[in-house]
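> tool_call: predict_assembly(chains=four)
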Amino acid sequence: MSYYNEPKTERGQETLNSLLKAAEEIFGEKGYYNTSIIDITQRAGVAQGTFYIYFPNKKAIFQALILDLSHTLRKEIAISIKNAKNRMEAERTGFRTFFSFINRHSDLYKIVWEAQFVDPDLFRAYYQKIAKGYSDGLANAIKKGEIKDLDTEMLAYSLIGIANFVGLRWIIWEKTQVPEKAFDDMMAFITSGMKKH
Amino acid sequence: MSYYNEPKTERGQETLNSLLKAAEEIFGEKGYYNTSIIDITQRAGVAQGTFYIYFPNKKAIFQALILDLSHTLRKEIAISIKNAKNRMEAERTGFRTFFSFINRHSDLYKIVWEAQFVDPDLFRAYYQKIAKGYSDGLANAIKKGEIKDLDTEMLAYSLIGIANFVGLRWIIWEKTQVPEKAFDDMMAFITSGMKKH
DNA sequence: ATAATATATGAATCATGTTTCATGTTTATT
DNA sequence: AATAAACATGAAACATGATTCATATATTAT
């Protein structure tokens, strides 16, 4: 299931890429509703009509971006925590990767949040998929006795919430890294919240 | 500083109230950008032009709603935690009040999140104000030795993040209360994350 | 080289929505 | 009761932007 028309030639693929790249940039800058097809095609360097060769409508390119983001982010985090020795180490590495990711893609961070208004079901699916993977990892850690036996779904959403709002405070608003002291304290808070006795 | 023209008569005050109420409902249902002035005036039962007697433009009524929400929510939480015996009890009560509030105002919950795209500065100010009050309360608890000495701003944003995403998962998406087991586990997580040794 | 397919163009077509304004009605003031 | 100030109306002016389409060019297959 794809939100765009698969190009059959090299040239077509390049045009599609230009459109996606332009859309990502401008949606990140001005938001979905303040972005016009003209904005996108102009930055991509193609005519207005060309847009509709690849996408049936404006919403479709937004949806395509969300899917792409979701995939890239989850993959990047999964790879980064692959070799963690235990759950606590996985959490620390996962948070680092997430912050690094939104640092490099602050435009996509905004895109995901706006999805709540452009396509609520997709927004929900996005977080549900992340939360599902998170929950499973936590359930595993509980089985191994690495952390307390708490409701894993609640825990997943809590940790996602922490990541999002701490990221919002420093990376999105301040355009800086999360200060080391804040990061360490955050991990201390999470760690003692989850660890046994 | 106000975003609307103060009515001088009883009749004017009623019309203003109708407009605000209608806007709150429709913004919550369809989002800011999918709501037209016609939608608002129709539901309020007044003519299109009447809107501009009270608000200079569409954005202004949205901003007025945010300010109103911000004020009501902070006040409600402040009152609810006034008589808490200690910080942990204040947290538990504060979370309960927050969830109850968004349960009664799920439309306003959506309005605040959309503010990020309609008026980013106002969105930021909204959370900064909440975070500031939260931080101060936490700093006080640290001084009293009730909780660990952690970066209070980080802690404030983390707790706001937890509340928002757990609320999103159950109250907004599922339209139910947060299950008791999840709520208790959430408080257990937060409590052991903050308490000393 | 020719036909078939894919890609590209941009002006025209729809569709919508914000804001203004000339005019009329209601309420408060004297 | 007369006058001024507030409030209300809805059609017109103004602005924008998504989508379609007839036409043209480029690429691939035969």
